[in-house]
Amino acid sequence: MSKLSVQGWLQRYFLRRMELAAVKPDSLTLQKSAMVFSPHQDDESLGCGGMISRKAMAGAEVKIIFMTDGRTSHAPFIGNEELIALRAREAVAAGLQLGVSEKDILSLGLTDGTLQLNQAQARDRVTELLELYQPKQVFIPYHREPPPDHWVTNRVVRAALRDLKRSVEVFEYPVWFWYHWPWVKLLQPTRRATREVVINTLRNGLGLKLLLDFRYVVQVEEVLGRKRTALEQHRSQMFRPATFPNWPILQDVSQGEFLACFFKPYEAYYRYCTPEGEYK
Ligand SMILES: [Zn+2]
User: How many angstroms is it from 258 CA to the middle of ligand 1?
Assistant: First the structure.
């Protein structure tokens, strides 16, 4: 029998806990209209591709709203305008794979990396969209997500929700949350990366935050293939062009350990209904 590391053992333990917590949402729940707010072009597929796909299959009206234009992911390799256009095309292709039609894929077009400076503008645009489409469910990044565009998306949408005069079911999804031990190894190739993982690990209580916050777990095993195909449409994030050997891709993050987090048979959400803090 092979010896399992503490990291491997803990991953198995958490996965087992997720399996035990997993719910099978009924078709009425899946059919509820939803608006998915994604800071960048790929977060929607990574964080909630399985849920989007299941909802679309059930006939729900799902809209995906990209907060930023994605211009900074590969800035040294490709011009701003070219990268913005490329990521917009990739986002539409990914959305189509998840079952969302092109007309339901929108972008606020704010400059990537600057959401923190444009919160008032973002909030106004989000309020307009929420009032126009009246979604029953809203998907946003987890409030403790490290990159500013992620936690600011959470903050902006929740502020807009506070202005609405009705209750909305909120699902916070994890993306960079997973960038902590035991999901990725503590020792990373650079000191900076190791430091980031150590800080995230402490912030997440050695992984216990997963059990404490992400208590709404959904089975997505049957749509994992679609989720993978959708994510692969974000070619600039998933595949390295032969002409650019240093072009970073998601597979590079902790030698694939990070990307593997998104292909579990479950997606976990921090779920509540507005006004904030009220669980159903
Ligand atoms: Zn992102």
Answer: 13
